[in-house]
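Limitations

Structures in this collection are predictions, not experimental determinations, and the ligand pose is part of the prediction. Treat each record accordingly. The example that follows, with flavin-adenine dinucleotide as the small molecule, is included so readers can see exactly what is and is not provided: the inputs are given verbatim, and the output is the predicted complex.
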Amino acid sequence: MNVNLSAEELAFRDEVRKFFAEKYPADIRYKTDNGIELERDDYIRWQKILYQQGWAAINWPVEYGGTGWTAVQKYIFANEIAEANAPDMVAFGVKMVAPIIYTFGDDEQKKRFLPDILQSNVWWCQGYSEPGSGSDLASLKMRADRDGDHYIVNGTKTWTTLGHMADWIFCLVRTSSDVARRQEGISFLLIDMSTPGVSVKPIITIEGDREVNEVHFENVSVPVENLIGEEGKGWTYGKVLLQHERTNLAGTARSKFRMRRLKAKTTQSVHGAEPLMKDRNFARKFAATEIELKALEYTDLRTLAAVATGKAPGPESSILKIRGTEVAQAIDALYVEAAGYYSLPFVPSQYAVDFPLQDRIGAGSESRSSLRYFNNRKASIYGGSNEIQRNIVSKHVLGL
Amino acid sequence: MDFSISEEQAMLVDSVAKFIDNDYDFETRQKIAASDAGFSADLWRTYAELGWTAVPFSEEDGGLGGGPVELMLMMEQFGRGLVVEPFLANIVLAGGVMRRLATADQKKKWLDPLIAGELHAALAFAEPQGRFDIANIATTARPDGQDYLLNGKKTLVLNGGAAELLVIPARTDGGQKDHSGITLFAIRGDAPGVTRNSFKMVDGHQGAEVSLTDVRVDGASILGEVGQGYETLHAVIGEATLAVSAEAVGIIRAMQDKTVEYVKNRVQFGVPIGSFQALQHRLVDTLMACEQSYSLLLWAAMTNAAGSDEAEKAISAIKYQIGTAAVHVAREAVQLHGGMGVTWELDIAHFFKRITSIELLFGNADYHLDRYAGLS
Ligand SMILES: Cc1cc2nc3c(=O)[nH]c(=O)nc-3n(C[C@H](O)[C@H](O)[C@H](O)COP(=O)(O)OP(=O)(O)OC[C@H]3O[C@@H](n4cnc5c(N)ncnc54)[C@H](O)[C@@H]3O)c2cc1C
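Predicted complex:
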């Protein structure tokens, strides 16, 4: 038993590290380092660089453009991308809809959609939740009624992350109400958002940003060839997707990076104050969070090791989601505590590229700490809330 | 032993509660907070007309002679309504200093218009390097002939942008963290050498960074004795700590009630989510946290009203409780609202942000637990 990296793995790590050092654009790094929101174009430009390197779709099968990396290599990559403070691929295309398409789609669909996802030519968003259907997703109401070679879609999706940036949306829709189990009437449909009848309305979140949307569909005509797999099987496909989503949610690499940054900040004097780490209360809290994170990292590694030997991530991935988001939220709170009174000014306008850093209220991104803390309360709510995850664990792990 | 409130106190609560219910619904509050000023100057005059701005001042100062209990009763209501008018900054902080130290002349000049709602004021209790230690003051006041020259920087000056009068603690003597050698100066907000960088705060309130460069003040602007300002500063911040704790209790009770209501009505899996035992127990825990917080608040208000030996400890006890239990209630309320809980549109998010602010104001849970332990 050991956790040492082999010589090849170390060489791989160096290669990845070098790539980030050389290819991650300095202007985008300036933004991520200084709390400035990325624009759609920043994401796309960066994702195309990853694509050119062959690293856009690390989890895909090689035949569609994946890397064929081992679990350890993926783990190394996750650490390095976090350490470079570079954004991950926006999940909806490459991590969410693509696996459904290459697993359940037909050849035509694979040819039509996968290359554009891989090359970041098309931006996807996820249309699952509805106003009346959150945790209880199977109660969804958005209808797709067959009319010749089209479906006519009517209804509302909500909480659609980055829907205002998206070109396409993948939806769970109701194609039949005349079924024994309501899950059986659900289908998986891909919809071009420029189709007449689709409208996107912003939802402003707690910290004041536009990140999520309500998407309305009024008599939207969708060709039947956009249906994935069989009609009525969408729920089964969607569940696979949810499982994928959950393995991506532990976020230990990002959390480790944030802890290191916080340590650097709090071991030096800010605003002429004593370094906060000299305060035993803070140091102990920091240490406790670090220990919790270490435990999570090893739990994550155990899952990775299991996946490497061919076991699919099962309900245990719920544990990663729960603890991963709880640790991330604890780190958010530590940042707020570290910034103290400087976490309280609400001046989003100073997080613009042309705003001089030295004129900001609060050193560095201090006054962003609270906004991130507020926003990230979402982490325990979305992707299957932590309560729903606990239900899954109690049912499928404990058998209760 | 008597936990009931007097007739006058009941009338006071009633008048604030009616105002919140009838004139300060959430939409109104949001409009006011989003306006340029960030509070309603009209409503502030209404607060004065209704006598609320006079509550903590003695009758001979033109006040109503209220104390910690009256303050608590009002602040709970202000919390429930998420009031953004600068009651804390004007009345509790700046007014608190004035009421204790101002001479008859100074009161005439500043306190009378403050109580009348015609003057806005602020107390600059925080410096960038000081965190929660109000004695950590690097701002200097250097004698220059008959005058003093003030130099330094203050942060998070509540209501600092609108304030026509700033109360500035500055060092006339002593080391940077000494209790002695702190003098309180009253200066005009637009005095030469004062630079103010105003901002909205995450909780919808108003703050400012204030820089002082050779600000000339005369001896008539000194509040109290030279070098003796700490004791007053300490007492005023204690009272403000009690005030925001009461506000927090008002907030978490509102959050608790709204969350209970929400889980009764939100249906998932064909039943109200409140029928899930996993959530029922969570809401029982938050109810207990609300009740325990209210109990400590009463202890703090009563010991402070009575001037008892435990008054100081009680303030740190309630603030510690707010920093732990109230934060817990606020997080749970957001969580149990699901996605709705993190929307700008819903009051829950704004209650949450105010609790976050209060969690830090005048010292967080650790700070007050340390302080409490030191007093035991
Ligand atoms: C910022 C953000 C981004 C999102 N992005 C997307 C997106 O891109 N696409 C998309 O489709 N969806 C998205 N979602 C939606 C998200 O998946 C839902 O919010 C989530 O499923 C919870 O649903 P709900 O908000 O309706 O809460 P509800 O389901 O109403 O839940 C309310 C509370 O009740 C609890 N609860 C519910 N059922 C049970 C139970 N059986 N036992 C115990 N507790 C229970 C929940 O855990 C929660 O605390 C996003 C949400 C947010 C907040």
